[in-house]
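Hi C.,

You asked whether I'd gotten around to modeling the 212-residue construct. I have! Everything is below, sequence then structure, no commentary in between.
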Amino acid sequence: MQKSIIKEAKTIDEAIRLACEELETDIDNVDVEIINEGNKGLLGIIGNKNAVVKVTQKAGIDDIIVDFLRPIFEKMEITANLEITHEEDHITVRLTGEDIGIVIGRRGETLDALQYLLSLVVNHKTKEYTRIILDVADYRQKREDTLIRLAKRVADKVTRFRKNLTLEPMNPYERRIIHSTLQDHKYVDTQSVGEEPNRKVVVRYKQGSGRF
């Protein structure tokens, strides 16, 4: 929640300084609205008017995240608890609650779309790039584990039968997991084919790999 303070002082700078002190922040972290510039009056004595400013603390990343997600969850009629964790190179937003699975959607499509929009909002408002990961009940880790097992299982089949296999359509994040899992495999390699949103990974047998 953004906090605002209206301050009055002899000068605009002084009013801003007093407001920042009360907000326990500095001028780089606030937006300033000048309500009255003030004046020194006649001969600097008669009719003096103080400057009046409204100083509003800029929203932090956590506030931006909450302000974006809460109305969406209200429209979806679900109650979600948000846990925001700041890591060295990204921010993870974990969602928990009853009926929260609806946020995941088919193969994580709803979750991915929401993460994309949240990233746009955060990066636009902060004017700097921050990687945002939106997760529901550790869905992403579970999905990653499933895809790693799938990649290894398919690689075994391709190796055994020397026949390429094409996986179901996946989003870029999921395709990267498949590629990464098999990038050093001795007998297979991978290739993405097709157009979004139906782009797929093909697991191919390396000809001349000497498996048999």
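If it helps when you're writing up: The helical segments are 12-23, 61-75, 109-126, 139-161, 172-182.

Thanks,
B.
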